[in-house]
Write a structure and sequence with these properties.
It is a single chain. The chain contains one helix and nine strands. The chain is mostly beta strands and 117 residues long. The strands form two sheets. A five-stranded mixed sheet has the order 8-5-4-3-9, covered by helices on one side. Strands 1-2-6-7 form a four-stranded mixed sheet. The radius of gyration is 14 Å and the shape is globular.
């Protein structure tokens, strides 16, 4: 795989699978919208922002999903939990842990994982 494809794959893992993306220029505001499925049971991504390290990780145990979000100082995040209808969760700086129940369509298959940095 060449460098262009590797960058594209890492970007796809960050933004789509793990769900870490900018919601404002320079990652001043994070968008966290994980999309578990496809047989993955965990995923993690980090990104060096101008404000510090941002991190999103999730782990699936059956229908239960645990989502961990690290929001750098002086930034905020908007968090969408998969399988949870309604308004997103607004968070400030710090480490936040969320739990939700996945719909059967989001559960996927067997144990694999994805990491991106």
């Amino acid at each position: 795989m060449n460098q262009r494809h590797e960058r594209a794959t890492a970007d796809w893992i960050h933004r789509t699978v793990v769900g870490l993306a900018p919601a404002a220029p320079g990652y001043r505001r994070l968008l966290v919208r994980p999309r578990p499925g496809g047989g993955l049971t965990r995923a993690r991504a980090t990104h060096h922002t101008p404000y510090g390290m941002a991190e999103v990780s999730w782990k699936r145990d059956g229908a239960r999903l645990t989502l961990r979000v690290v929001v750098p100082a002086n930034t905020t995040a908007v968090v969408y939990l998969p399988g949870e209808p309604g308004a997103p969760i607004q968070t400030g700086s710090g480490t936040h842990v969320f739990h939700c129940t996945l719909r059967s369509a989001d559960r996927g298959g067997d144990s694999e994982h994805a990491d991106a940095q």
